[in-house]
Amino acid sequence: MAVFTPVSLDDLTEWMTQFPLGKPLAIKGISSGIENSNFFLTTETGEYVLTLFEKLTFEQLPFYLNLMQHLAQHDVLVPAPIANQNGVILHSLHGKPASIVTRLQGACQLAPRPAHCAAVGTMLARMHLAARDFPMHQPNLRGLDWWNATTPTVLPYLSNERQHLLRAEMHFQEAFAGSATYLRLQQGPIHADLFRDNVMFEGERLTGFFDFYFAGCDTWLFDVAVTVNDWCIDLATGVLDEARVRALLEAYHAVRPFTADEQVAWQAMLRAGALRFWLSRLYDYYLPRDAHMLTPHDPAHFERILRQRIDGTIPILF
Ligand SMILES: Nc1ncnc2c1ncn2[C@@H]1O[C@H](COP(=O)(O)OP(=O)(O)OP(=O)(O)O)[C@@H](O)[C@H]1O
Ligand SMILES: N[C@@H](CCO)C(=O)O
């Protein structure tokens, strides 16, 4: 269902001559994904992924594609955009923005064990460090400003109790974002959506992070919190799993040591990471943009996680 714009081998014969990839041999639509038209592409030189962007524009895409290129050039495992003979990585196909990136081997690990979480922690820290000198800047477009804009649009759909939780958490996060501790946290380009379905593994070996289309500049700790909230929990309750949390955080800390300020901010940041996805899921649930988003993600999952992070036990950062 996710190929919105079909592409055939015939469409590619002429178009592919600009790339140093040899002749296209096979193309196969990828059925998962809801934002773009994605294809596995086999050429004389290897396996790639061709994406036609259905919503993101020629103006929006350079930040994401250049960030992936920068990270790939710094040995962070991410899909590397393929440049044409003029060095260009953003192209046009059937009137849509298009890119070819290297194909990551393996599959997503939806039931991660501590070893997987450790691999994610190591690569996440390496990614933050490698992105420090990435020259482009874009804010996290799903950050506090977006939360402020979105809260009033979803509030009318919520019970009194949920309205109270959302208002109180927004109030708390506004104060946190203005605090001296927060303002001292290290920032840079972050993935901002590093869920289990955006990382590939072969066995316990991590082969890459992908889907960078929520990336932006924000605190590194927010990226860690979003990641822990998805990788290191009991899925039914949202309760943090100590062994996986420790594995991820210790691996991250070994590459990029956490700071005392980050320790102070940790619980508030786990709450921020939960609020971000509670809000986006509420928005997609009550105000669906597209008819094809037939099964929006369950907002209650992140409401549970948010309540857990407010009231539950939080493992120390390091
Ligand atoms: N570089 C890559 N290497 C291997 N597989 C990839 C790569 N990029 C995408 N895929 C595969 O394509 C699927 C769809 O990609 P993706 O999740 O980015 O979809 P999307 O429609 O672009 O965005 P969304 O995740 O928001 O629906 C992934 O689940 C993954 O299986
Ligand atoms: N990771 C998001 C979906 C957007 O990629 C979620 O689970 O709500």
UniProtKB/TrEMBL annotation:
Protein keywords: Amino-acid biosynthesis, ATP-binding, Kinase, Nucleotide-binding, Threonine biosynthesis, Transferase
Cleavable signal peptide: none
Catalytic reaction equation(s): L-homoserine + ATP = O-phospho-L-homoserine + ADP + H(+)
Matching SUPFAM superfamilies: Protein kinase-like (PK-like)
Domain of life: Bacteria
Pathway named in the protein's UniProt entry: Amino-acid biosynthesis; L-threonine biosynthesis; L-threonine from L-aspartate: step 4/5
E.C. numbers: 2.7.1.39
Domain Aminoglycoside phosphotransferase: 27-258
GO annotation (BP), single: threonine biosynthetic process
One of the Pfam families matching this protein, by short name: APH
GO MF term (any one): ATP binding
InterPro entries: Aminoglycoside_PTrfase, Homoserine_kinase_II, Kinase-like_dom_sf, Pseudomonas-type_ThrB
Family the UniProt entry places it in: Belongs to the pseudomonas-type ThrB family.
UniProt protein name: Homoserine kinase
Source organism (scientific name): Noviherbaspirillum sedimenti
